[in-house]
Amino acid sequence: MEITGIISALLIGIVIGALGRLVLPGRQRIPIWLTIVIGVVAALIGTGIAAALGVADTAGVDWIELGIQVALAALGVSVTAGVYGRR
């Protein structure tokens, strides 16, 4: 992986983390840096799942892959907010 791939993965992860946080109702009491980390991880795992399902490379925008990534980010933010909120 080249440096441009890493930078684009980070930028996409930031967007995915923000979208995952926006999808959830209510307030999540976790720091923004943790949301970004969750977004990056969700983007990487979502890409792997989309590749396994055969929907990673399509013509145009990969809506299914994006949906998988946002769903994983929302799940990650939800679980992390539940665990982080108990502290």
Describe the structure.
It is built from 3 helices and no strands. With 87 residues, it is mainly α. The chain has a domain at 25-82. The chain is globular and about 45 Å long.
**Which stretches of 5+ consecutive residues score pLDDT under 50?**
none
Give me the number of helical elements: 3
Shape: globular
Cα separation of the termini: 37 Å
Largest sheet: none
What's the helix and strand layout?
Layout: H1 3-23, H2 32-53, H3 63-85
Helix pairs in contact: 1-2, 1-3, 2-3
Short description:
This protein is mostly helical and 87 residues long.
Distinctive features:
single chain, 87 residues, 76% helix
